[in-house]
Amino acid sequence: MPYFGSEETVKELKRALSNPNVQADRLRYRDYISKVIRYMTQGLDVSALFMEMVKASATVDIVQKKLVYLYMCTYASVKPELALLAINTLRKDCADPNPMVRGLALRNMCNLRMPGLTEYLEQPLVAGLRDKASYVRRVAVLGCAKMHSLQPSTEIDSSIVNELYALLRDPDPVVVVNCLRALEEILKDEGGVVINKPIAHHLLNRMKDLDSWSQSEVLTFLLRYIPRSDEELFDVLSLLDAFLQSPHAHVAMATLCLFLHYASSHTAVQNDALQRSTAPLLASCGTTSRELRFAGLCHIRQVMRSQPSLFASHYKRFFCSYSEPGYIKLHKMEILVELVNDENVALVLEELRSYCTDVSPELAQAAITAIGRIARTYTEKCLEILTGLLSLKQDHITSAVIQAFKDLVWFCPQSTASVCNAIESCTDRPQDSEGKRALLWLLGEHSEGISSAPYVLEELCADELKTEWSPGVKLELLTAAVKMFLSRPAETQDTLGRLLHHCIEEESDMCVRDRALFYYRLLQRGIQETKRVLSGPKSDPSLSMLTGRQEEPVIRWVSDFNTLAPLMNKHDSMLKESERLLATQPMGVFSALAPLMDNGTSSPLQTERQRRASEPVVTTTENEPPPGDTDTTLSSHGKEDEEEAFCLSASPPLSHEEFEKLWVELQTLHTQNLLAPCAQTAPETLQAILQMVHIQTLAFTPAHTLPWRAFLYTRSAATIILTEILQEEDTVQVSVKQYPENKLALRGFLSTLQSAFQTLNAENTCENVALSF
Amino acid sequence: MISQIFILSSKGDHLIYKDFRGEGNKDSINVFYEMVTALSGDQPPVVMTHKDLHFIHVKQGGLYWVASTKTNPSPFTLIEFLNRFAGLTKDYCGSLSEKSVRMNFALIYELLDEMVDYGYIQTASTDILKNFIQTEAVSSKPFSLFDLSNVGLFGAETQQSKVAPSVAASRPIMSNRGEQGGKNEIFVDVIERLSVVIGSNGVIMKSDIQGEIRIKCFLPTCSEMRIGLNEELSIGKSQLKGYSSAVRIDECRFHQAVKLDEFDNFRILKVCPSQGEQTVMQYQLCDELPCALPFQLFPSVEKDYVNRVLIFLKLRCDLPPKSTALNVSITVPVPKGSVSMSQELSSPDQTAELQTKNKALLWEIPRFPGGAQLSALFKVDVPGLSSASLLEVGPVSMSFELPKQTCTGLQIRFLRLSPTQTGLSHRWVRYVSHSDSYTIRI
Fold first, then answer.
1. Which pTM was predicted?
2. CA dihedral B290, B292, B293, B299 (to 10 degrees)
3. Is A277 near chain B, with CB under 8 Å?
4. Which CATH homologous superfamily contains domain B185-291+407-440?
């Protein structure tokens, strides 16, 4: 953060650093240098001191050297010409008799990250790879990767690659692991480091010498090796067996991951490994570090997807302790629900019951939902608890209980009678919209069971007219009223009439108005017809079989195991996925787009695309990630996220001149006929509507002139879309140009435009209907 | 691999920032801080994503220790590494606080430089690191013998200065090269965390002990040390030795440097401790506690007048008469809408207050001798009280510390340094049990 008088500070430091008296006093000099680093960390720009700092690097004081190097690595990319001055000192240090100085200099030289450095780097690096001291070799090995990343486009130096492969046999374990890491980076384009049988066995034999960090990393590298025979496989696994129980969670998890991968065709081995991993997994859930607990819990949930009962005997370990943060408690509750069985159900329910009065409303509601889910199997006990909670008369509890009731009735029809009784005797009304919707659904669907239902509905309806509710609640209210009218017409008629009148005449939300109109017209067709349309199943017990415990094969989640994916917010991982899809632009989108591009113009590009779209390449939508590239395997959510990721924006604005220039330069990508907006639509209305969906209208001809023209543009992600609308008589032709091409954005744009037109048409007809009402 | 590592204070000040791969930029610190402060209580903050950068963080000593990465690594590795980094910082700086990190930033940069290169973890062992670390730690407060008397183990107020050297263990491991203050000390702590749920009928529903033996070593070099545990210690459900009341644990795990060749027969751990803090053994015991629970609570909750709840708590400490529980605090949830409370406590050093925000009352007892019984009466005014509101009272949760106690009964029989060890060395053994979660239903 910038401080007051930051320039003054820098000037003062400069003066002090160049003062010969300060330079002579070692401690004072070092003190000023650490001041510079302190300001640098705080965010002050001290790059102006580069010259002074370079001078300070020529010292015998190692602490000072380290500080200066830290400074240089931070600012070298800003001041490359000055950084070159430092190289001499660094190169001299690379030949120092002290291995620590050699290593330090070499590491920081590689860290400078500025262009034109490679020519100076090569010689000390090669010398470093053959250094006597393992410390220098470690640095040099990673230095090769750094050098490669400075010039990623250049040819890979095969002599360095060979040397690195040879260093895999180095006596120092860290050098070995660094070699793997460096090779992985250098050979990224060729699929990373090759783990063949001799290398794999060499690494396996070295496992015991490595420290825990290296162990887990080597285990991850070994994932890409496939043992040739079952015999070899079991040899490898028995060699690694001890690591399954490692006291370090990261080693134990990496080993488990390897077991699951290797033994993918031996289910018994997999199950055995999972069984033996319960101890380290449970231990990670009991550590003092909350973050580790959380990671452990998330991974336990993964394992439970295949083996729901694995942790059943340890259910008490998932009781929440009161000092734990909410996110851990929520996960523990989710796990508890899965672990319920005949023996522990009473204890688990009592535990969950005590969470229901938690201070945090979210936790209390989650506990109630959990009890609701257990109720699908152990209905009576849970219903007793849930009904008891209603008497607390607290808004958030009542709301959650009613929502739990709603789900319960749907899954277990046998509970209907008790739920109806509970609702009947509950005088408290939920205040949030989710709770209201659940209550309304129950009232509408089971009005026969709840004798007071019409009066409750009337009361809710009166409330609704007084205060503004969310459209979702209004829709549910309409449905409930109509359904109740079908079963108890006499008591509901009045309420329904008023409600319909209100929704059609005074409602501003289009969906609610349309729904009200729909019901009104449906009722006009007669009661029988309405019943036929509206009556559906009141419950679906078969669904609980589907959503209940089902054992997934290990293969479904093993690719995500021991990665960040299980820990991510659902929202985050979906976002990530859609970004990835956008970036890679899978071929599948072509095929989806192809039918849209029928009466296309005959630009060579387009025909090319059509040809490709019709080829069987299309089937590669699944995007099988390359085995080494873990980044793309984060999670495998469906493609439906594409729609959400697509987003239009009209800014930054485009001037008339720029538009014209682009329009002339680009070729028409796509033309299409759309439904014409109604004749009476003023262009201004169209403009306003398009603006709402972030499509900017640049120019249009006056209204009622034929042919009528308009020019639009919009941006999406990195592309710009230009459009001409040409209206002649009844047809509207849309021609689209785009730069650079992005099929996804184009498709999204077209559907947005189309729905904008449809809205416009609906608006008009709606107004007409409303007038005639 | 790690892109950046940074340490932030709880207010978002940048204390340490190091970029290993030049992939991210410094703005990501602010992005992280905005994201972490915007989260509500029950959203998991451990992993967060901004564009293609993932932030993994742990919170220790009131500071955020953050690593950012562009790849998808093992969360266990990163979280354990960050914990280890915080632990090392504590070892080297003496204590973990914003102040000590600020004062020792040069040292911490030096540590990071050796621990991570180009985003890859190189080492995290004190034995290796101590050869490379040159900067000396600045202690945030001068070490003084007078401090020992009243500040106790884990920051507790204790009266045990004659027995256990308290703050002595929180000093930098390497600060005293050549100074005479550098005592050759080694501390062996047996720490147990107790989590218990007691049902409303007084039956123990869950009891669970997580324990560990932790060594904090200030010896510059240490050859093999032998730690003798109770000989009658039995591990696992089946194995029982002799007829005497055996000390039993369910399972245990050891640090990889521990040699166990004498463990099976003599229960002796052999270890060469490196400087700093390390956990030698972790163990746990589920259900069937060998001793009585430290506290028994006899609560009664009644509706008094129209709008008042009477909560009468009788608390008995079942420790042996000579021992004491410290910092006992009892939290009782009260009905929503409680406005005020009056209390009758049995001694002036106890305090009680009503926390309307958490709708709970908090009763604190600084010292609770074994065998004693305390009672307290709370009258809570709740406008619009209904009989159902009484259901909201409870469950009671307690937190406390039991110095010189282990609930499993695990003891250290002896602590022997090998005869070749040069110089005078002080050996200290400390025991403490504290509550992880102690819940009593009403």
1. 0.77
2. 150
3. no
4. Mu homology domain, subdomain B (2.60.40.1170)
